[in-house]
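Hi D.,

Good news: the full-assembly prediction came through. Inputs first.
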Amino acid sequence: GAVVSQHPSRVICKSGTSVKIECRSLDFQATTMFWYRQFPKKSLMLMATSNEGSKATYEQGVEKDKFLINHASLTLSTLTVTSAHPEDSSFYICSARDPLGEKLFFGSGTQLSVL
Amino acid sequence: GENVEQHPSTLSVQEGDSAVIKCTYSDSASNYFPWYKQELGKRPQLIIDIRSNVGEKKDQRIAVTLNKTAKHFSLHITETQPEDSAVYFCAATKGAQKLVFGQGTRLTINP
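Then the structure:
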């Protein structure tokens, strides 16, 4: 299947700092990528849809100024958690559809811990 | 919008027995139903999927059935093995729209 790469895998930061997470589609182009958040023992919650060359589409209740998404190229989307606080601690995971546009493949995820 | 309900939340079976996880969806227009397996701290892995024009699909020990009329689909794992222990998520979507996930089922295979 299509390979989606995500970095970093783990981040520990102080409260108030910003954290950037990168998501790359390897050997295929992804005009759309999806960012999910997952709490322990919970399901995947869609945060936003990242669209190459245009603004991201955020789900209801997700603060767009808090979670900045940039999709500047066909293979890279970034999620920046701005002014992180302990409640932002979570597992963040990106995904992209394969070139045929149906199957969804996930990055390896980023465990964010805000102290 | 689409809503996906998944049951049970936890399932424990003896090694070698079968496991069944069920999901229901609300949007009759949904036409793609994947299943993902997620091990602790890892990414969800696509294990099988089915489209609305098919009633059943099988891949070795894994099978998925779809009942469009009742709007439910199920994952069947036969001859379970310890490595099948994980959290399983069902999902539903329409075309290229966003995937909506079920709540997940924690499957434990007892040796």
